[in-house]
Amino acid sequence: MNTKTSSSYSPIHVIGGGLAGSEAAWQIAEAGVPVILHEMRGVRGTDAHKTDGLAELVCSNSFRSDDATSNAVGVLHAEMRLAGSLIMHCADRNQVPAGGALAVDRDGFSDAVSAAIESHPLITVLREEVRGLPPKEWDLAIIATGPLTAPDLAEAIRRETGADALAFFDAIAPIVYADTIDMDICWHQSRYDKVGPGGTGKDYINCPLTEEEYNAFVDALIAGDKTGFKEWEGTPYFDGCLPIEVMAERGRETLRHGPMKPMGLTNAHNPAVKPYAVVQLRQDNALGTLYNMVGFQTKLKYGAQAEIFRMIPGLEKAEFARLGGLHRNTYINSPTLLDQSLTLKSRPGLRFAGQITGCEGYVESASIGLLAGRFAAAERKGETPSPPPVTTAFGALLNHITGGHIVSDDEPGKRSFQPMNVNFGLFPPLEPGALTRPDGAKRFRGKEKALAKKQATASRALSDCASWLGKTA
Ligand SMILES: Cc1cc2nc3c(=O)[nH]c(=O)nc-3n(C[C@H](O)[C@H](O)[C@H](O)COP(=O)(O)OP(=O)(O)OC[C@H]3O[C@@H](n4cnc5c(N)ncnc54)[C@H](O)[C@@H]3O)c2cc1C
Questions:
Q1: Which residues form a coiled coil (predicted)?
Q2: What residue segments make up the domains of the chain, in order of their start?
Q3: Ligand 1: which atom is nearest the Cα of residue 63?
Q4: Residue ranges for the binding site for FAD?
Q5: Protein residue with least CA distance to atom 12, ligand 1
Q6: Rounded distance, CA 160 to CA 346, Å?
């Protein structure tokens, strides 16, 4: 095996070159420790990945809100940037306009991550499927094989952990060729004309529906031909990623209050008439030739998808670059299995990272990869890994996964562990008296208080993260 080893340390093995594994490998190498990154794509694919590129985004191209002042995922972005994240660096350089969100050109992003990893003097990439738990010689290793871990390794993990496999469903949304969207019916506008970084307030394409069109669309969704998935019956959906037809089944108005809400949008072709519902499409590549249907993840059969989505005004002649789909998503019961440095308690030296630990989302997966990489590098150098304070977004998410924050009588493993996006509910409450109005008055009114709490939590997180990293925020 030809490995790059211009370091006195022996290598750490990272299995899986997705968002978490790529970030973990980068952090280890930047700490001066060599890495061998094992990625199976190129030899074996998954049901959702389409390329051999590292850190491929399997569905949406959005890293969600980039607002570090009052949004938890925006705070996580900022903390990752402070910690020298490769994933954030490449996302920032491949940004496409998306209102207040950070969305990326998916190919440009993955190419940038691949180039940085493959050219790093301390990282060796091996294209191979790892079929079992790391052998003894790999004394330090990280498993970051994601929700679509190949079956042999998934079975080996199940045998080692002894726990029943946990799983839920994730669905992906279709992507449309922009030049097949009828712009005599649709118009460009961001909700409430919000202007994000590099944006114009016109970042989305909007398709208007009348009440009659909306009702016909909902009926068609409910009647549509669904993918058969009997073997997975009883597996729950992740609530943040419900298939659109499942939302439609929950009530006629559900979609109009969810992904099809018309608020903050004015039909440029007919400003006097308020649309009853709106379908939004977000730019998916830097060229602006592809747009994804926002919140339209689906398990409808391919034929049914094309037919039903062409009922949407403006999409009558839409051609799809990719249709939606449904995938099983596997994760481990981390609160019982992992310690605070993401090490498997039953096998010192073996860490887990990314979505397989039970976090949810691209940014969260990458951030847990970042932490696992730092912890493993510290261990290799004979240092004690130091977890981030629980007041940071890193620490809040880590504590959700490892269960360290549970102070009730319940054992961590006894609660039902559900994958979760980062959110302010995971952060500890503010210290008494932490909220003060700029004018010095004590009382906040209504929404003002909720916003002030988020802002104070965000600012505490960034300053504590900077101290943890030995930097200034
Ligand atoms: C269908 C689907 C849609 C999703 N959509 C979104 C979304 O829109 N937005 C969002 O924020 N999150 C989404 N997620 C959730 C999650 O953010 C992504 O799955 C994310 O890619 C997880 O990052 P990861 O690094 O943990 O796993 P991955 O990015 O999947 O990386 C794991 C890597 O490990 C490799 N691998 C697997 N088994 C082996 C093996 N045995 N040997 C070697 N290599 C192996 C895989 O090829 C892959 O490259 C989705 C998940 C799924 C399953």
A1: none
A2: 12-163+332-424, 171-328, 430-469
A3: 11
A4: 16-21
A5: 361
A6: 8
Q: Ligand 1: does its nearest atom lie under 6 Å from the Cβ of 295?
A: no
Say if ligand 1 is within 6 A of residue 107 CB: no
CATH of domain 12-163+332-424: 3.50.50.60
Contact 99, 294 (CB under 8 A): no
Percentages helix, strand, coil for the chain (3-state, rounded to 5) are 35, 15, 50
- Would you state the pLDDT for residue 232? 46
CA distance 257 to 411: 38
Closest CA to 349 of 141, 157, 150, 162: 141
Q: What is the pLDDT of residue 441?
A: 64
Instruction: Give the phi and the psi of residue 96 in degrees, each rounded to 5.
Output: -120, 155
Per-residue pLDDT of 342-374, as tens digits, reads 999 999 999 999 999 988 899 999 999 999 999
**How much distance in Å is there from the Cα of 149 to the middle of ligand 1?**
8
Cβ atoms of residues 323 and 227 within 8 Å: no
Q: What does the DSSP 8-state code read for residue 127?
A: E
Cα separation, 426 vs 422, whole angstroms: 7
Q: Give CA 13 to chain center in angstroms.
A: 23
Taking alpha carbons only, the member of 363, 402, 400 closest to residue 385 is 402
Give this complex's ipTM: 0.99
φ, ψ for residue 141 (rounded to 5)? -150, 155
Cα separation, 125 vs 21, whole angstroms:
11
35 contacts 5 by C-beta, under 8 angstroms: no
328 by DSSP, 3-state: which? strand
Which CATH number describes the domain made up of 171-328?
2.40.30.260
DSSP state letter for 236: P
Q: Which tens digit of pLDDT belongs to each residue from 157-170?
A: 988 887 655 666 66
Q: What is the mean pLDDT of each run of 10 residues along the chain (473 residues)?
A: 71 98 98 98 92 94 95 97 98 93 96 98 98 96 95 90 65 85 96 80 93 97 72 55 88 95 96 97 80 90 92 95 76 89 96 93 97 98 94 94 53 53 85 75 74 93 97 67
pLDDT tens digits, 70-98: 999 999 999 999 999 999 999 999 999 99
With a 6 Å cutoff on the Cβ, whether 76 touches ligand 1 is no
Structure tokens at 61: 């191209």
Q: Are strands 350-352 and 320-322 parallel, antiparallel or unpaired?
A: unpaired
Give the strand pairing for 175-177 and 320-322.
antiparallel
